[in-house]
Design brief:
2 domains; 9 strands; three-stranded antiparallel sheet; two-stranded antiparallel sheet; single chain; alpha+beta
Length: 219
């Protein structure tokens, strides 16, 4: 699901089997929303680590010129730029080699015997790979990774959890009585449409402040 993090409303959705890979669904759904909704031009695309993939980061920048705010899996924090990355102690990492698939290989400056690091006992960096060009996954796009601004943006992701909660408990998606992808998909679409219908009524009454709480429990 794509949702607006300000008003907490669904924008686009797709229903897949439980064994589908989440990260592969991101860009097709974003492109569908862009094709069907002329106004859809996100400034930020926020997602959890289930969508952590280099291609998603790069496609978000290329297709939407948007900032990919995606949590990464077991990432070693790196600062600076792809041309000159720095470790936690702000020491320049030492370039070692290049691989056409992995990118540029860098080593901890102390392990390369180029510097003495005051954080060597707790720094996890030994060898890391950084993609050539600009590695959006490690460094961000316009908003630098590992900064307060980046974390504040990522914290908006909780909006999707509240939407899911409303759909599950107030639109009965958590206790459906259907089997099969087609029937489940229809139930999901009706649940989302009913949520949007309630928001539309609020908007027509100029009650935009209540769009986020437009849910009504269905018995």
């Amino acid at each position: 699901m794509i949702a607006d993090a300000v008003y907490e409303l669904p924008i686009a959705m797709n229903v897949t089997p439980g064994n589908a890979r989440e990260m592969a669904e991101m860009m097709p759904l974003l492109k569908t929303a862009k094709a069907k909704l002329p106004w859809f031009a996100p400034k930020y695309v926020i997602a959890d680590r289930g969508y952590d993939d280099h291609k998603n980061f790069e496609d978000i920048v290329r297709e939407f010129d948007a900032e990919p705010i995606i949590k990464t899996r077991k990432e070693v924090p790196v600062f600076g730029t792809p041309a000159q990355p720095f470790c936690l102690a702000k020491l320049p990492l030492v370039y070692r080699s290049w691989d056409k698939n992995k990118g540029l290989q860098y080593q901890c400056p102390e392990r390369a015997r180029k510097a003495t690091c005051p954080l060597s006992e707790r720094c996890p960096i030994k060898i890391i790979w950084i993609r050539p060009g600009h590695d959006y996954r490690r460094f961000g796009y316009r908003v630098a990774k590992h900064t307060e601004e980046w974390m504040n943006l990522y914290n908006r992701r909780t909006a999707i959890e509240r939407i899911n909660s409303r759909l599950k408990y107030e639109r009965r998606l958590d206790c459906h009585c259907f089997r099969g992808l087609e029937k489940i998909g229809l139930h999901c679409k009706l649940a989302v449409l009913s949520l949007l219908a309630g928001a539309l009524v609020k908007a027509q009454k100029n009650e935009s402040d209540e769009l986020r709480v437009c849910a009504r429990k269905i018995a």
